[in-house]
Structure formats: C-alpha cells, structure tokens
Amino acid sequence: MSNAIEEVTQLTGEKRLPDLLKNHYQIQVLGAKPMGGVLKLETDQGLFVLKRVRHGEKDRWRMVSELAKHVAKSKPDRTGIPTPVPTTSEQPLFNGYRFSYVLLPWIDANLVSLSQIEDWKRTSRDLAHFHQSTRGFVPTVPYRKYQHTGKWMPEWERSLGQLEIFQMAAKWTDTPTETDQYWLETSAYTKAILENLIGYYQKIGGDKLCKNTVQYGKACHYNLHRHNLLTDARGRTHLVDWNETVLDVRTRDLAKWLLYGYGRTGSRAVLTSILQGYQEIAPLDEAEYPLLYARLLFPEKLLRLLQGIYDQQSISIESAAPDVRRAAYMEEKKTDLLRLFPIIVKEEFNVSIPQLDWLR
User: Fold this and answer.
1) Which residues of the chain, if any, have pLDDT below 70?
2) Superkingdom of the source (predicted)?
C-alpha cells in the first residue's frame, strides 16, 4: 500500500477511498492532509478538497451544486461558491463504504481579514453580491427540507414547545446534572424571549413580509464566520462550508452576520459598517429591518445545543454544562445588541422599527 493510500485510509477509515476517487473522478491520489474538517488532496490532476457529507444531507449538496452553478453564471466575477466536481456519472457526490463524500476544487486563498472597520464593510458588500446572485435561482426539485421562506413562525412555535419539554426533563430527572441545573437557571428567561418573539413576529406579519422580500435573494449560506470566508490574490471573496445552506430570505443571513460581528467585537461601529456596506450594493426595504430584529431575538445557538443534549442526545449531558452556561451568557449579552440595533437603524437610515418594550 502506497503512503498516499495509507494516509487517506487512516484519515477517513475508508480502505478503498483512493480507488473510489479513481473510479468516480479519474484522479490518482498522491497525498492527503487534514485541514479544518476537510481533507486536502494532492492528485495527478491538481489539488482538491474532499468533504464528508453528513447523514441525510445528500440533497443539500445537490442543491448547493445547482446553486453554485447559478451563482457562477449570475455574477461570475463576484463572490464565489466552490462548485462540487461532478463524478463521471455527472453526480455532485459519491458513496463510500462508510460515508458519502463531495469533491470540491481547492481554492488558493487566505482567510479574510476582519481587523479593521473597512474589512467588515467590504465583506458585507460581498455578502450582498452573493444574495443578489441568488435572486433568479430555481432549483430543479423543491428541496422542501431546506425551504424556509415564510416558515419562521412554525419553526419558532415548535421551538417553544421543545423548550418546555427540555425544562421538564431537567426539572424532573432523578439525577440532575450540572447541565440540568444551568439550563433550569436560564430556562424561564429563554422561554420568555421566545414567547415575546412569537408575539412580535405576529404583530409585524413576519411570514408575509418574508414572502414579499424573497425577490431580493433566495438562498442563505447561514454559517458566516471568518473561517468560512476566503479572499484570493485578486481580492475575490469565496464562501466555503455549505453544510447549513437553506433557501430563505437574505435577512436570515444578514442577521447571522450581525450577530457574529457584534459577538466578535462588541462594537457599534462594526454593526453600522455591516449595514452600510451591505446597502452600498443591495439597499434594504424598511420592512426588512423588523425581520432582522426578529432574527436577532431568536435564541438559536442555545436552542440547538439543548436539542443536541435532550432531544437528539448527540451531546453528552455530563460534559455539556460549560457550553450551556456559555450559550446562556451570550443570549443575555445579546440584549445590548437588541437595544442598540433600533438606534443604529434610526440614526443611520432614518427608519423606526417596532421594539419589545422591556428592551428599549
């Protein structure tokens, strides 16, 4: 067995993966190196990235493949998406013996810099270009599992029901853990936030607003942070790691980006630069500001963590206490952002948005 084959086998647990790559792509593996959750492959036809497809996520990657081709045609010189390399049978992925995989082109680029205000503004312009490039996207099949436009309310109502179940699970267990205790300490506050969010969203007619604004962009990356943003020698930005991609309005992505920016810096100037940079390319409708406020309210990170602990049981309850405490702290810290956001919107863009009274 060659060193390259041994490397791939050790890194993936797939004994025949080099043979499968040869069969599906007509490439010969010369070397492999793990990099940030993917495998960088050196082959006789150049460099590639091999990424494992999560269980039940094949259709997401089929959708991403279609989206990447559409974006490349819509704005070929702007924000890029790595298009999955098609197999010899023109499929965007292939099945291994243990997992499924997608092969992506290697991008010769570096992580974006976010050390200056102008960096945030520039990257926000690139995000706006991406959303614009998705406006005419029509997938070949509905991909209903990933279609979220106009479906926020049902999602949030289900989330509230889950929180109540998780609260009872932590309260009535015979052997409460530290995780249970931390969750119970913040459960009333978290439920109140979600209840207020649902009331706010009903008041603004949120799902109707979403359907009315889908014309401005139909897809969201939804995992925006520095390690998923690359810039090449020409200054072109590339969005990578599409595991969370959904079909939804642009405010879902933009709210996530605002949360990341404020969480990383705590800076009003960064929030302002994000909104200004984005709107240099794609101005927001007034109706989209309340949607952003609603997305900022949603305690998504904490909810996902609790789902992993109490529902899916993919996260050990014995070791999750620090994560629950950290996520709860971030939700409380987010109140500063929720108070600041309407002020920025009013002072910088002369738009007044409804707010929760207790967050004024």
Assistant:
1) 1-5
2) Bacteria
